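Entry type: protein chain
Record version: 2
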Amino acid sequence: GKFYANDDKDDEISPEQVNDILIPESATGDIYSCGRQGAPIGTQGSFDLVDKDNFQKICTINWSSPYSGGSYLSASDVNNNYRVGIPAVRANGPVGFVDISVEEL
């Protein structure tokens, strides 16, 4: 798969550029990913959420959206100082757009 910017699948960005995405406190942000055109393998991956103020890792967001079969979205290695809300995703088909909530405890 690939990451892309601004909801434009032709504007591919590197994983390093994903690492540079900052989401201000009390705001929203977008991270886009999809499979590659003509490659019937779907997409899967992960990225870390990090609190930029104290450099604490909040969690790792994991997903899999295979070409066929079940999809999932999860948070792992969640820091006890945060609450992470992961919505349910469709078991079959693409993960789609989801809202992940993060709350500092």
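Comment: The longest strand covers residues 57-65.
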